[in-house]
Amino acid sequence: MVQIMDNASREIFAEKRATLGEGCGSMASWRDSVSSGTGGRDIMSTMLRANMSSETDQLSDDELVGQMNTLIFGGLETVSSAICRVLWVLASKPAVQARLRAEIRDAKCAICDNSSNWQVGRMSSLPPAELRVVYAFCDSIRQDTILPLYRPVRSRSGKVLDRIAVPQGTTLIISILSANLDKDVWGEDAREWRPERWLDVHRTQDDCAAEGDEEEGPGEEEWQVPVIKGEMKYPGVYANMMTFLGGGRSCIGFKFAEMELKQVLSTLLSRLHFSLLNIPNEHGQIKQIYWKINPLQVPVVRPPLGDGTSPQVPLWVRMVGEGDFGVEGPAQ
Questions:
Q1: Helical H runs in the chain?
Q2: pLDDT for 15-24, tens place per residue?
Q3: Beta-bridge partner residues of 15
Q4: In 214-245, which positions are buried (b, 16+ CB within 10 angstroms) versus exposed (e)?
Q5: Can you tell me the distance from the alpha carbon of 173 to that of 253, in angstroms, rounded to the nearest whole number?
Q6: pLDDT at 114
Q7: What is the pTM of this model?
Q8: DSSP assignment, residue 226?
Q9: What are phi and psi of 64, to 5 degrees?
Q10: Which of 31, 34, 73, 112 is the most exposed place for a label (fewest CB within 10 A)?
Q11: Would you state the pLDDT for residue 127?
């Protein structure tokens, strides 16, 4: 698979380089061509234009192809797993699926009518709702560190600690799942699938105070921060969660992953209806999907109808009919 992906990336690279005008003569004329933007707004064209913006600090062809491979392969399994999870949840909640499909249709119609921005409420909330289910991150401490704690903890000796000394070389495992499902942060419904928590948004008192306005509500362009208990914010880069980590070790491709999710889901849900398998075979058995904990969560089918290992999420799929569009209401 890696070889196939590399070959495809090299073919795309050669095509984009030709389109951007490498064969038009001198390096200066190529730079004029690529800077004009005639090569498109795709990732490879953007990288080629950026690479040509400097005479000295440029990446080689192999390095550019490597960057493309990293972008594709880095999010391959994670995004695929997230898409499967979304479709599985929507298949089990047909009312939510119908309302989301209706919002997608209305948003597309709005674009066709007046070229307005495409903003779909529930589509914006689905990626955070599904990306909460990430388990752990493991790394090694590079120097002696004092780790401050948001809440004091009691050690085995009974002493209450508000910080922990972590020696160099210690392997540190961060429980991302615990952070994303912490009832002290998200409230008693922390483990419930409720994407509306990312639609019921507001600014914190600190946000309002920093802007000199403690009464005004959130603006349309502000990033959606879910209503959370105690106004605690994690240092993560996405939706007040630690799924993509934070700081210098955060995932550089999280916006790319979110874009992939929305593009694929909006395309599929516009045309197809998904439902769980509910018709038993001749032995009265129905395929049951469960999510196996590997480095990623992957869907497998329980024995005897599945091997419990091979990733798969079998669903009933049919073309969408007019009755598959729902009305506004809370998720069930």
A1: 2-19, 27-35, 43-51, 61-74, 76-92, 94-114, 121-131, 176-180, 183-186, 205-210, 254-271
A2: 887 877 654 4
A3: none
A4: eeeeeeeeeebbbebeeeeebebbbbbbbbbb
A5: 22
A6: 55
A7: 0.70
A8: B
A9: -65, -45
A10: 112
A11: 62
